[in-house]
Amino acid sequence: MKITVLSGGVGGARFLRGLLAVVPPADVTIIGNVADDLEILGLRVSPDLDSVLYALAGLSDEERGWGRADETWNALATVSELSGDAWFKLGDRDIGLHLVRTQMLEAGYPLSAVTEALCRRWQPGVRLLPMSDDRVETHIAVADPDSPSGRRVVHFQEYWVRMHAAVPAEAVLVVGQEEATPAPGVLEAITDADLVMLPPSNPVVSVGTILGVPGVRDALRATAAPVVGLSPIVGGDHVRGMAAQVLASIGVEVSAAAVGAHF
Ligand code: FO1
């Protein structure tokens, strides 16, 4: 039975570990969100692909849900000492991966080929595809009384990690989405599946950005497979993360039924 999962990072990885306790990994293809990707300290970081890869390869830090187990933070300590961008916590082991990814991308390999190479080495057991080889970035508009427009737009990671999502998200902008094309294998993985699952990842900035890649929604409509979504909203709130804030910012009620209708 071929199962395709449209996954975000931390929540998606936890869901996948449960799924893989009951189905063989070789049956599973994961289409990962890359709209959380960022460039920081000259490195290209793909947090959602990495959270899934680390979790399924047995390399992840269980408690954080992101990054690697047995991590050390020496490089970041030096960045901090030198007043560099240390707000996004990259551990030494994690940086090793970002160095290789950045070098391969700069050499001209698409993200899908880089991801395939990483999977060949770390063997997560599943097939892991980025949603697109194109740059797609989620930005969040927040109120800023000091700006002439009254607003400021920040990268999703800056909103989530640096600002702790402490101010309301006024709008979610997905830059580059309309021009993006699905990565090789993405549409086929949906149309040829026996079952498609949308895990309880963030419905706006994780699953929503995958659904927004041109062609993906049509493939979901065209597939003969049942498409099963699990909402991260339980009892009118998210379990972890920031789904409630971003649903409110795009005018979607914070309920499981509204998430279904939004999808
Ligand atoms: N999340 C945090 O809350 N703080 C961090 O400093 C942080 C660093 C980080 C580095 C690499 C990585 O792959 C993920 C990282 N995350 C961090 C998780 C990430 O911000 C988000 O949870 C996902 O993008 C949302 O799915």
Task: Give a structural overview.
By secondary structure, this protein is α/β, with parallel strands linked by helices. It is 36% helix and 18% strand. The protein is built from eleven helices and twelve strands. Strands 5-2-1-9-10 form a five-stranded parallel β-sheet. It has a three-stranded antiparallel β-sheet with strand order 7-6-8. Helix 1 packs parallel to helix 2 (47-56). The chain is globular, with a radius of gyration of 18 Å. It starts with a strand and ends with a helix. It binds ligand FO1. Ligand FO1 binds at residues 8-10, 36, 45, 47-48, 50-51, 66-67, 88-90, 94, 157, 160-161, 206.
The portion of residues forming beta strands comes to 15-25%
Q: How many strands, what sense, and barrel or not for the largest sheet?
A: 5 strands, parallel
How far apart the termini lie comes to 24 Å
List each distinct ligand once.
Answer: ligand FO1
The shape is globular
Low-confidence stretches: none
Number of E-state strands? 12
Strand order of the largest sheet: 5-2-1-9-10
- Radius of gyration based on Cα positions: 18 Å
Order of helices and strands: EHEEEHHHHEEEHEHEHHEEEHH
How helix-rich are the residues, as a percent range? 25-40%
Structural class: alpha/beta
Helix count from the secondary structure assignment = 11
What's the overall average pLDDT, rounded? 96
